[in-house]
Amino acid sequence: MSARTALLLATLSLTACSAAETPTPERISTPAAVPAAAAAPATASAAAAATASAPATASAPRDPNVDKLQIAAQVDSHAYDMVRSLVDEVGPRLAGSLGDKAAVAWALRTMREKGLENVRAEKVMVPHWERGAESGRIVAPYAHTLAIAALGGSIGTPAKGLEGEIVMVESLDAMAAMDEAKVKGKIVFFSAPMTRTKDGSGYGKVAGMRYRGAIAAARKGAIGMLLRSIGTDHDRLPHTGGMAYDKDVPKIPAAAISVPDAELIARLVGQGKPVRVSFSLGAKLLPDAESANVIGEVKGREKPDEIVLIGAHLDAWDLGQGAIDDGAGCAAVLEAAKLVLGLGARPRRTIRVVLFANEENGLRGAVAYAKDHAAELDKHQLALEIDLGAGRAHTTRFLVAETSRPVAERIASLLSPLGIQYDKGLAHGGADLIPLHAAAVPIVDLHQDATNYFDVHHTANDTLDKVTKEDLDQVVGAVVTVAWAAADAEETFARVPEELRKR
Fold first, then answer.
1. Is 290 a catalytic residue?
2. Which residues of the chain have pLDDT under 50?
3. Phi, psi of 288 (to 5 degrees)
4. Among 72, 215, 315, 391, which is most buried by a count of CB atoms within 10 Å?
């Protein structure tokens, strides 16, 4: 504990209300709360948001250990240093690459240095895709060079490249409705822009075109697919991301182009002029490679076999350095565990940190974890994943059985001093929690401010300078609050009933 932490705790003991009194944000020195209007989920109506985001039970007592942990997150956190270490020492770490292997070694070393227990690497076989050289240009009606990036998993083009006339569409539905004769032998260009939102909901509305666009285009006879980058920036840096093929449809090369280049093509098409584009991708898929989920724990004092999981994904796309996606998440959960170890007290249950393999292009790590730990999934009390950069957390949601709603609301009330509101809507969990969701494991979401996240997501701009220490430390405070409160709760979380999981 630093001298500053000790001083804040001493001040807290003199000025704070007793643990049984109503908590107030002034009890600890924390960042200013997010205004209620800004913290309401963007997907809810104004009236619904006012009801859904009502504060948790005001009479819930404070937990002095949570107070200490929240202060420590503010003044003693080294999460930013961990992101710096991962970025500087490892950098890009796409599944199956040498960077991926280096990241696993980094995670094992870091967990041990932070004092986590039962540290191990659990083997996962992951896809090994390499980008290779890539280039693109508009051939007609005017010559322009394109900033282009193959989508993860795409096949390469023929050695001489691919050239064809552009057919522009705005959605998968529009593609499905298009006459095959207008598409056959051409390059389909998906032109829909992504909307900037605080909650990141704009991503989900367009990401399906990236994932299934090549399938939809090939089904109509297209020879290639181009995509306006799924991002909210206007930099000439393309956004990559995972895509899929269907065994019953021919595979065609697929790539994203930068937003300014996409807007150029759209303008030319809008002028009624035939637009021809050529592009070359050196992408190739190699045999599966060995990677690992990296796991470390803070063992519980009474019920060590019961688990609160806090996770993030260790892999990152090859274009950038993976600082916000998901180095920040890795650092947040690692630092949360380290702060609990420094508390001098153990929670009732075990807090397990999982750094998942292969989230970006396959979810092999998530699937392997659920399979490897199938026998103990009913002992998983709560699961949380951090995978939205380093933006401040502003809202929390839970996916729990109604009988467990009171303990969830108590945990939510402990987050209030951090400016985090409680939304009674259902949590969905990050991508790596999909198999746990299916296994009825209770889930909590910490919704982070994603206003600027998709400016750099999956691009070469995903670098350390995009991480703000103060914001990341607030996320650490939120993660450690949830982890401690859930792990130390007297109540046992019930399994989530199927009717809730299907909503």
1. no
2. 1-58
3. -50, 150
4. 315
- Listed in sequence order, the DSSP H helices in 53-180 are 64-75, 79-89, 98-113, 172-177
- Tell me which of 134, 297, 335, 359 is the catalytic residue: 359
8 Å CB contact between 413 and 63: no
Distance CA 313, CA 107 (A): 11
Q: What architecture does CATH give domain 132-282?
A: 3-Layer(bba) Sandwich (3.50)
Give the full edge-to-edge strand order of the sheet including 187-190.
Answer: 144-146, 134-140, 276-281, 162-169, 187-190, 224-228, 254-257, 148-150
pTM: 0.88
CATH class (in words) of the domain with range 51-126+288-501? alpha beta
Q: How far apart are CA 466 and CA 210, in angstroms?
A: 24
pLDDT digits (tens, 9 = 90+) for 61-105: 889 999 999 999 999 999 999 999 999 999 999 999 999 999 999
464, with CB counted inside 10 A (0-12, 13-18, 19+), is middle
| Residue pair 154/253 in contact by the 8 Å Cβ criterion | yes
Predicted local confidence at residue 56, as pLDDT? 46
Q: Locate 13 and state its tokens.
A: 């003991």
* Residue-wise pLDDT tens digits, 134-158: 999 999 999 999 999 999 999 999 9
